[in-house]
Design a protein that fits this description.
Layout lengths: L1 H28 L12 E2 L3 E2 L4 E7 L4 E6 L4 E6 L4 E6 L2 H7 L4 E7 L6 E8 L1
Parallel strand pairs: 2-8
Antiparallel strand pairs: 1-3, 3-6, 4-5, 4-7, 7-8
Length: 124
């Protein structure tokens, strides 16, 4: 009988320690911040079909942008050098690839923040 109680107590202790371990790993994920909508990187002007320039505002230094067309194909990757406004220049082939669909997206990743994606239309 004592062996059974000892076994049950050790299993209970194992579950208790396992719960603490999982809680501590979840705490590290909670340290990742989200960027408020007002501070997200946005287009300054609408993108027109086959244009070779994307103009952005609210840039954050060292943020990584990935521009995707409507078919989720990568068109261009870009690293933001300075805080504030910035432009991304596209080649003719990249502009054509971006203009294939009615919309395009760009994903923004930065260390310490959750990655977010913004969708925009392609104007004629």
């Amino acid at each position: 009988m004592k062996k059974v109680l000892g076994y049950v107590a050790s299993v209970a202790a194992l579950f208790a320690l396992g719960g603490c371990a999982s809680t501590s790993t979840q705490g590290s994920k909670a340290s990742v911040k989200t960027v408020s909508t007002a501070k997200q990187i946005k287009l300054r002007t609408n993108y027109h079909k086959n244009a070779q320039k994307l103009e952005f505002k609210n840039g954050r230094k060292n943020a990584k942008l990935t521009v995707l067309n409507g078919k989720k194909q990568c068109v261009k990757k870009f690293s933001v050098a300075n805080k504030g406004n910035f432009d991304i220049k596209l080649s003719k082939a990249q502009a054509k690839k971006l203009s294939q669909c009615k919309t395009f997206k760009y994903a923004v990743a930065q260390k310490g923040y959750k990655t977010y994606t913004v969708s925009n239309p392609v104007c004629k």
